[in-house]
Design brief:
Length: about 270
């Protein structure tokens, strides 16, 4: 399936904050919402969607299975619980949020369970998140590359993940960039700022457009309605080849998300 290029992230947003963010996002035109079991906000996301009046078929909702729910006896029940919280009978995409620490649950076990969830109609598509090349290959060996809709990974101008991206492209697996703005660090980068002035755009729009122009999906979050609306304009920004090359030169392998208890051996 085709993963929408632009969506609304909800990482670190809880309670009324996430309700307001999703409500504002839907009102200004977002139709893709990304959440996760560990975000502890699925109920609030579900409430905001229900209150919005936007038809379910017009939305693309993603959630992610937490590591505590990866075993075959827990994965589908946990997804059903997510659906209850989200007030829907299915999500459009379900990801394995992080690989199982120390392979406590095998890739074969959780990918098979995830594929079963799709067969049961609980999710329209399946994929992975924070998988390195080895883990991607193991997932492919279980369900086939065609069944893996995306790998959602940290990817921004300072961490361009070229080796992983090349492998994914070779196998026909789409990438979703999270933290595309590097916690806001790229917004003050001179190259990004220069490119923004050149195009009468914001630095955030430039970073998001850069990622989309490389073929990645992006899921930025914001608690401010004006930023949500502004970020959405990145979908119509086209950078030149020179712009893309200048941003490509910013790569410095700066990884911002690397939890000791979860992270695989990155490529």
């Amino acid at each position: 399936m085709t993963i929408p290029a632009f969506g609304l992230g909800t990482f670190r947003l809880k309670g009324q904050t996430v309700i307001d963010s999703v409500r504002n996002g839907l009102e200004v035109g977002y139709r893709v919402i990304d959440t996760a079991q560990i975000y502890d906000n699925e109920s609030e996301v579900g409430q905001a969607i229900a209150d919005s009046g936007v038809a379910r078929d017009d939305l693309f909702i993603t959630t992610k299975i937490w590591v505590a729910n990866l075993s075959k006896d827990k994965l589908i029940p946990s997804l059903r619980d997510s659906l209850r919280k989200l007030r829907t009978d299915r999500v459009d995409l379900t990801l394995i949020h992080w690989p199982s620490p120390n392979d406590a649950v095998s890739v074969a076990e959780f990918m098979s369970a995830l594929a079963q969830a799709k067969l049961q109609g609980l999710t329209g598509a399946i994929g992975v998140s924070n998988f390195n090349i080895d883990l991607m290959q193991r997932a492919i060996d279980v369900v086939g590359a065609d069944e893996i809709a995306t790998n959602q990974v940290e990817l921004h101008p300072y961490l361009q993940n070229r080796k992983l991206a090349a492998f994914a492209k070779q196998r026909g697996i789409h990438l979703t960039s999270y933290m595309t703005l590097a916690y806001g660090k790229v917004l003050s980068d001179p190259v990004v700022a220069y490119t923004a002035r050149k195009h009468d755009a914001t630095p955030a729009q430039v970073a998001l457009a850069w990622a989309m122009q490389l073929g990645y999906a992006v899921i930025p979050s914001s608690t401010k309605r004006e930023n949500l609306a502004s970020n959405l304009l990145a979908t119509s920004l086209r950078l030149s080849d020179d712009d893309m090359q200048r941003i490509a030169a910013l790569d410095r392998g700066e990884r911002l998300t690397d939890p000791d208890s979860l992270a695989p051996a990155w490529d």
